[in-house]
Amino acid sequence: MHAPKARSISCTTRPGTQNLDEVGQNMHTDIGTLTLLFAPQWGLQVVSPVTGAWEYVQPREGHAIINVANTLRFLSKKRFRSALHRVLPIGGVQKEDRYAVSYFLRAADDTEFKDSNDEVSNAKSWYLTKYHTYELPHDVQGEQTVLSGGMAQELQATF
After folding, report:
1. Rounded to whole angstroms, how far apart are CA atoms 72 and 107?
2. What's the sign of the alpha-carbon dihedral 6, 141, 95, 44?
3. For the purposes of burial, counting CB atoms within 10 Å of the CB of 147, is it exposed (0-12), middle (13-18) or buried (19 or more)?
4. Angstrom distance (rounded) from CA 78 to CA 90
5. For residue 1, is it within any domain?
6. Cα 40 to Cα 5, 21, 22, 58, distances in angstroms
7. pLDDT digits (tens, 9 = 90+) for 93-125
8. CATH number of the domain that 36 lies in?
9. How many domains does the chain have?
10. Which among 68, 28, 24, 26 is positioned nearest to 42, based on CA atoms?
11. How far apart are CA 127 and CA 155, in angstroms?
12. Longest dimension (CA), the chain
């Protein structure tokens, strides 16, 4: 697998369903430096750094949600915090199709930093490691710092 260009755009559609196994997205942080998200429906949740609770982000027409991602967190020596987030429809039921457009900005492949385990890594290696982690069972994902860029451990959030 290769890492994509330093920027990419993703248009996603998730069909409405009553099956709870088919809704939502596991807790994670984004890989690159910044993410711009355009999502007109409720469902995005972030962990409050104050309360540690999951809180819904109100969608606002004509606005983007901007997330700090892992590489920017690591390059800033953790001064900036990656947005720990997940997608979970209100009430756990996705009655309508869900649409989102995401713009991901990544650092150059050879950009070096200390990752969530304080090991020297680079943007390409982090990207590949993180996507490999998405393929693991959820309980294994939760034992590692990769999926959340260390934010789950810092905020003591649970999967």
Report:
1. 8
2. negative
3. buried
4. 31
5. no
6. 26, 22, 20, 9
7. 567 788 889 999 999 999 999 998 899 999 999
8. 2.60.120.330
9. 1
10. 24
11. 22
12. 44
Rounded to whole angstroms, the Cα distance separating 112 from 16 reads 41
Residue 22 amino acid letter: E
The parent domain of residue 112 ranges over 7-152
Picking from 140, 10, 150, the residue whose alpha carbon sits closest to that of residue 83 is 150
Q: Look at the alpha carbons of 55, 59, 63, 66 in this order and tell me if their dihedral is positive or negative.
A: positive
Buried b (16+ CB within 10 A) or exposed e, 39-76: bebbbbbbbeeeeeebeebebeeeeebebbbbbbbbbe
Listed residue (115, 116, 128, 45) closest to 85, CA to CA: 45
Residue 2 lies in a domain: no
Of 25-29, 86-90, 118-122, 144-148, which one has max mean pLDDT? 118-122
Report CA 41 to chain centroid distance, whole Å.
Answer: 17
Amino acid present at 155: L
* CB 80 within 8 Å of CB 73: yes
Rounded to the nearest angstrom, the gap between the alpha carbon of residue 67 and the centroid of all alpha carbons in its chain is 8
pTM equals 0.82
Any bridge partners for residue 136, and if so which? none
- Write down the residue that tokens 């962990």 correspond to: 47
